């Protein structure tokens, strides 16, 4: 309720400063822009509750979008196969993160930092640093289309994934295992939970969502961009932390992450409407993240 109140207060302040914020077109634009970050943040919630981190999602977005765009634009591959290939790239990166995290003692921060660089490098190598323009209407509909002429397709995907992730975390054994492993890995192991399998699932799912986000973003930009997703992992982590998920693991809610992602989206949109420089926006986001993490630390000490 606290962060929901914070979101409402933020909306009121921005609406007072610029009435255009409350127009239907702008609100739909906010939801569309927020959707890409939300895909990443939903999976990041699972990873952070597990006690891990995934810094590779931005780079995975780039390489998945590039692969899909190249198959459609340069090799005339059917759209379904091209999208499946892009998703497979994301899944493979996530599986690699999950396998190494589950079978070694290397910290997830280092593992995903390495794959972040591998993914970004692969995107540049595949495209020679140049964007891949896609003129396919079917491909562009994925991220730029409307359902019923009203609902943007990225928003529809957001609704579906929010429901899916909520069910996974609250109605399945996998969700309970994620909370258990994040709360106390030793207790989870003694209770018979396969910790390696749980970690592998969380990171693989994160890779899948990053791949999907990359394809949607490429469709919205009508091209596969090797620079896509730069710092996307930071916005995703910010949304998760603002949503109340503990960076030490064991606690978090999908609903909180949704509100956190909306706060990030509304903040970015509002600062643009008010005319704040993009350079200052980084500073504002950084301060917001710091305050959120500090509030989490205080809350855990007083609990």
Automatic annotation (TrEMBL):
Protein's name in the database: Ribose ABC superfamily ATP binding cassette transporter, membrane protein
Topology class, membrane: Multi-pass membrane protein
Gene symbol of the encoding locus: txxe 2357-rbsC
InterPro entries the UniProt entry points to: ABC_transp_permease
Cellular localisation: Cell membrane
Originating species: Thermobacillus xylanilyticus
Chief location of this protein within or outside the cell: membrane
Matching PANTHER family: ABC TRANSPORTER PERMEASE PROTEIN YPHD-RELATED-RELATED, RIBOSE IMPORT PERMEASE PROTEIN RBSC
Annotated TM spans: 39-72, 145-169, 200-222, 254-273, 279-298
Keyword terms, alphabetized: Cell membrane, Membrane, Transmembrane, Transmembrane helix
CDD domains assigned to the protein according to its UniProt record, in alphabetical order: TM_PBP1_transp_AraH_like (cd06579)
């Amino acid at each position: 309720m606290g962060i929901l109140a914070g979101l409402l207060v933020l909306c009121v302040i921005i609406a007072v400063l610029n009435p255009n914020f409350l127009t239907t077109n702008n609100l739909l634009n906010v939801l569309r822009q927020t959707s890409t970050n939300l895909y990443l943040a939903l999976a990041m919630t699972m990873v952070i509750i597990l006690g891990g981190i995934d810094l590779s999602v931005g780079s995975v977005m780039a390489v998945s979008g590039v692969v899909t765009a190249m198959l459609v634009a340069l090799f005339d591959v059917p759209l379904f196969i091209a999208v499946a290939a892009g998703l497979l790239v994301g899944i493979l990166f996530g599986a690699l993160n999950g396998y190494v995290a589950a079978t070694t003692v290397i910290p997830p921060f280092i593992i995903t930092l390495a794959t972040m660089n591998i993914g970004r490098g692969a995107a540049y190598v595949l495209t020679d640093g140049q964007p891949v323009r896609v003129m396919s209407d079917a491909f562009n509909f994925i991220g730029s289309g409307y359902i019923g002429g009203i609902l943007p397709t990225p928003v529809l995907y957001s609704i579906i994934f929010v429901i899916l992730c909520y069910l996974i975390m609250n109605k399945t054994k996998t969700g309970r295992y994620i909370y258990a492993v994040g709360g106390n890995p030793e207790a989870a192991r003694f209770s018979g939970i396969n910790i390696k399998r749980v970690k592998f699932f969380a990171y693989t799912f994160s890779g899948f969502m990053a791949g999907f986000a990359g394809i949607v973003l490429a469709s919205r930009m009508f091209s596969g961009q090797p620079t896509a997703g730069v710092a996307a992992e930071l916005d995703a982590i910010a949304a998760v932390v603002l949503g109340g998920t503990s960076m030490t693991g064991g606690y978090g809610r999908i609903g909180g992450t949704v509100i956190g992602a909306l706060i990030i989206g509304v903040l970015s949109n509002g600062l643009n409407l008010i005319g704040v420089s993009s350079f200052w926006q980084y500073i504002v986001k950084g301060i917001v993240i710091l305050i959120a993490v500090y509030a989490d630390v205080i809350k855990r000490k007083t609990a």
